[in-house]
Every structure is written in C-alpha cells, then in structure tokens.
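thread: overnight batch results

M.L. [08:02]
morning all. the overnight job finished for the chain we discussed friday. pasting input first so we're all looking at the same thing
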Amino acid sequence: MAALLIRSDIQGKANVVADTLSRKAQLASSMVGEWSLLEDVCEWNPYLEPHKVIFGNIEVKSTLLDGIKEGQLKELTVEKWVEKLKKGELPNFNLGPDEILRFRNRIVVSRDEELKREILEESHCSRYTVHPGSGKIYQDLKSLYWWDNIKAKIAQFVQKCLTCQ
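M.L. [08:03]
and the structure it wrote out:
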C-alpha cells in the first residue's frame, strides 16, 4: 500500500511539471505576439512628455465628406448660397471648419444622386446598422444631413432593399 501512495504522488508531481512546461510554452508564444506588437509601436516614433506618452497623430478622415465637399463645389445653387452666406443674407447656413456648407448645423448634400445613395447605403446596409427601417434612418440622418425630400428618398431606398423585403 505504501508503494501505491508513492506512485500516485509521483504522478501528481509529473502532472505539475507537465502543466508548468505547457504554461511556459503558452507564455513564450504570447510574448512573441506582444513583441511583434511592440515592434509595430516603435515604428510610430513615440516620445515622452510629462505624465504621458505620445505615439503620434493618427487622422481618420471620411471619404464621404470629401465627396460631399466636391459635390458642393460643383453645384451652382450651393455656390450662390455660400456667396449669400458670406454677405450675411442666410442666417440658417454656416460654413464648417472643413469648408462644408451646413444648414442649421446639418451638412448640405448636393443633388448628386450617387452621393445620396452612398450616404443611404452607409446608414442602412453597413454591418453596424442591421438594416433599420425608414423611420429610424430618417431620425438618424435628419440630424446630420440636409437635402430636398430626404424623407421620401429614404423611404424609396428602404423599399428597394432586397434584404428588407
């Protein structure tokens, strides 16, 4: 019976050693992953300031806003509005810091149907929105964008969506 106790005691120690060795391999593999991440961070040229580390400036810019700005520059009506705005004749309009015309702080979208479709697809068909109905999209978009008949355009777009049928 004493030999049997020693044997089970040896197996337990063997398992502890095996567990430790397997954890060592897991730790080493995670350290390799962290090392490659550290190498990536070093490429950002970080520098220290008192109480903080600065990694650099990352600027994320929407291509949609670039398209809206281009559309505004091409449309004569928007040009006239900008001229009137600069004369102080349009109190509800303003130019944002990005030089995009806004009506009551909502981005003015030109008559470019492709641009409107892109905005509607982003708000309805992206993986983060899960195909909301026209009422929800209208509530979301009316606070951000302004164009003629926006509500009707949204309803038409949702009605044509094959996923929502």
